[in-house]
Amino acid sequence: MLSPRHFSPVQISVTNYLDVISSWCFWAEPAWAELKRRYSVRVSFDWRIALMDPQGLPKSRAQEEWFYRRSGVMNRSPFMLRCDWYEPVLPEYLAPNLVAQAGRRLGVTEDTVRLALSNAILRDGAPAIREIEVAAEIGAKASGLDKARLAECARAPETEQLIRASTAEWHALKVTQRPTIVIDTEIGDRAIFSGVVKFEPIAATIDSMLEDAESYAAYRAHHGEPPAS
Questions:
Q1: How far is CA 36 from CA 15, 47, 68, 77, 204, in A?
Q2: Per-residue pLDDT averaged across 24-46, rounded?
Q3: 98: domain range?
């Protein structure tokens, strides 16, 4: 088997559009972690916030619990998610997503802050998650960032602008489910998985796209660039 250094420097990116409080995004985390583990040498991974709006949020706590039972069974989970966080008066849950984005702006570019928030909300039932101070305390404890600095960054207009822009990117994809996994290659191929939380179909697609992109790279190495006209 060839070692990673023998692979062609093919550019493939995988972007995960998610909302920190989304249960379906939570169920996709094991697949996301395995994708990063398997392909990190050859593929760049990124995540962006795609805020859930009233159309994507439950209408009542009873409805949320029903969704959690269904998704928990579908994913063979030994635990049920908690919906203590749910407040029907809120059109979106901005605070935890702002704190997750703020963690990125402060240099924690991996999944640490957003995973801590998701687990605190969905598994532990963290109360008052609509408050930035509560979310910042959770994020700071997980990342080692200063809580006050994290909260300040979360409140900065630039942080909200970033998540509004990435949410707009998600809407422009014309999909309906979060998470949305977008795979792009340097040869212009694109694959989009909307609402898919299993590892296997995404991995199979990455394998196929890597093979195609490397074929292009091999041809270019032997024959150069195409004629201009």
A1: 11, 12, 26, 22, 14
A2: 95
A3: 4-223
